[in-house]
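[INFO] parsing input record for YCII-related domain-containing protein
[DEBUG] input buffer:
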Amino acid sequence: MRFMVIIKATPDSEAGVVPPESLMAAMADYHGQLAQAGVLLDGSGLQPSSKGWRIRYSGSQRQLIDGPFTESKELIAGYTLIQVRSRDEALEWTRRYPNPVGEGLDAEIEVRQLFELEDFPPSDTLERFRDIGMGDKPQ
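[DEBUG] output buffer:
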């Protein structure tokens, strides 16, 4: 089972403020523990939305919208992707996640399970995904 730990953006992360060394060390230690346990698939911080864009779809039309985006509480500042045996194991790992804004401050992370190809009924379309390696769980 794969889960994504989603770190919400803050005004500081949207301003491109680098986290303090103590927080970087705590994150490095935590991700090192995940790697040592063999459950870490990926993890990274994201650049501020001012360096990104969105594509808005309206029927067959597409509109480019350049960042920054104003609602930082709706944005993602980073993520950690893990693969574990159960929801309970994912819950245990995420309970140990360092406070993403620093100890003693209010923050929130969100955890979402990823779909696997096995979650869908068999179809020719799913076989096309398998043929190109999408949805395959890393070994």
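[INFO] Residues 2-131 form a domain with the Alpha-Beta Plaits fold (CATH 3.30.70.1060).
[INFO] shutting down worker
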